[in-house]
Amino acid sequence: MTQQSDTTPGSVGQAYDVFTDVGATAALGGNIHVGYWDDDQDVPMTEATDHLTDLVAGHLALRPDQELLDVGCGNGVPALRIAGAHGVRVTGITVSRQQLTQASELANGSDARGRASFLFADAMNLPFDDGSFDGAWAIESLLHMPDQAAALAEIHRVVRPGGRLVIADLCQREPFTGDGRTLLDGMLHMYEIAGINTPDEHRARLAEAGWRLLELSDIGERVRASYGHASAAFRELAASLDAPAAEQITAAADLMEAFGKHPHTGYVLITAQRS
Ligand SMILES: C[S@@+](CC[C@H](N)C(=O)[O-])C[C@H]1O[C@@H](n2cnc3c(N)ncnc32)[C@H](O)[C@@H]1O
Predict the structure, then answer these.
(1) Which domains are seen in the chain, by residue range?
(2) Residue nearest atom 27 of ligand 1, based on CA coordinates
(3) Whose C-alpha lies nearest to ligand 1, atom 7?
(4) Distance (Å, whole) CA 75 – CA 104
(5) 124, 200, 224, 274: which has the fewest Cβ within 10 Å?
(6) How many CB atoms lie within 10 A of CB 62?
(7) Pocket of ligand 1 (CB under 6 A)
(8) If we measure between CA atoms, which residue out of 43, 29, 14, 22 comes closest to residue 242?
(9) How confident is the model over 69-128, as pLDDT tens digits?
(10) Whole-model pTM above 0.70?
(11) Mutual angle of helices 148-158 and 199-208, in 10-degree steps
């Protein structure tokens, strides 16, 4: 894994506080993850991002009243969608205070009120007893964690035997080199990413933490359009911001667009089971 050593939960949380403050979450339509398109590319980004959430839920083998953990819950949109659709209870954790406020407010106004709760916590040191959850998911959060092995071991500890973990995350299909490596380093720095695994690194980390891999697929081509949509939304947002924020968000948009076009940019959907 290409590691950005100065990324910490504190720096990630601060970045998401600013991201939320300038309206970038709203610009993405609520979810802070890629969209998934079947064959119809005309589906709008917001719908496509919900589609990705539904794919994650579909791999969790959910049953009503189960307790689920959302590792890196953003502003709570995926947790509320899954709690509402499947009648499960969800605890979401984030390292951003702004996201926590937003998620709690959204939960109050949602049909899933009472089925979802949110707290400020670090996935590498979870404040839950052993076996507290029936399953867990992590959408685009592991990549921010400087010690993914610790996070996977912690999730393993708090999920009951037989429970599932579904991960949706970026991957390097092959290691980026040359100009690609410069692009990747720019992404890590700009987006407070600790590292992006290859599929083999994902497999190895899960195995080390005691997870049994059920399925890993690279759905990169189904999500690739997201980078163009997100960078366009960021450029539109930049037009409404003052100069320093606009410059920053335009630079973030440029990087994202280039990263989305790179052939080594992939995206994994992983289902694992607690042994
Ligand atoms: C790209 S956002 C994804 C949010 C949400 N999963 C979604 O799909 O909308 C990354 C999330 O990971 C969370 N995160 C990053 N590092 C974390 C850590 N060490 N512990 C808990 N959450 C973390 C961030 O706070 C943020 O909510």
Answers:
(1) 9-274 (3.40.50.150)
(2) 74
(3) 32
(4) 8
(5) 200
(6) 19
(7) 9, 12, 16, 31-33, 72-74, 77-78, 93-96, 99, 122-124, 139-141, 144-145
(8) 22
(9) 999 999 999 999 999 999 999 999 999 999 999 999 999 999 998 999 999 999 999 999
(10) yes
(11) 50
